[in-house]
Amino acid sequence: MDTIQKGFTIIELLLLIALLLILGTMTTAFTGRFLTQNAVENSTDQLVNELRKAQLNTMMGKSNSHWGVNYGSNAITLYKGNSYATRVTAVDEVFTVNVNILISGLTDINYWPTNGTPSATATITITDNKGSTNQIVVNNQGMVTR
């Protein structure tokens, strides 16, 4: 009578471990890429919202003041005042940007009361360290487009 042996051979176990390692490595790479792309989208959305909010606050005469948006030190700041340097810091709204994200083309945009025109036009580029890019344009009338 033959006996039936149950279990796995060492080769089967090694193949299973190799397969799990390959899947784990691929999953980590795809997850990292997804999170970075998501950070680009979040930063773009936040910047567009802050630019529109600054223009709206100015046009509505909120606090009878100019409003603007500044980018520096990995942070987007909505501020009240004629410039970032002379702003009222108590009302700042700060959004921290992921360290893997680079925003270029923006330092300071301030809006003029009543008509909401910006102090400067801008083409703002938001890029991650893996190549994803978004672009925001602020025209001479203050229209913000992606």
* The named CATH superfamily: minor pseudopilin epsh domain
Arithmetic mean pLDDT: 90
Would you give the CATH topology?
minor pseudopilin epsh fold
Structural class: alpha+beta
Q: How many structural units, i.e. domains?
A: 1
Roughly what fraction of the amino acids lie in strands?
25-35%
What's the helical proportion of residues?
Answer: 25-40%
Order of helical and strand elements: HEEEEEEEE
Q: Can you identify the CATH class?
A: Alpha Beta
- Biggest sheet layout: 4 strands, antiparallel
Number of strands: 8
CATH architecture, please?
3-Layer(bab) Sandwich
Radius of gyration: 25 Å
Shape: rod-shaped
Which spans have pLDDT < 50 for at least 5 consecutive residues? none
Written description of the protein model:
This protein has a single domain, classed as minor pseudopilin epsh fold. The chain has 1 helix and 8 strands. The chain starts with 9 loop residues before the first helix and ends with a strand.
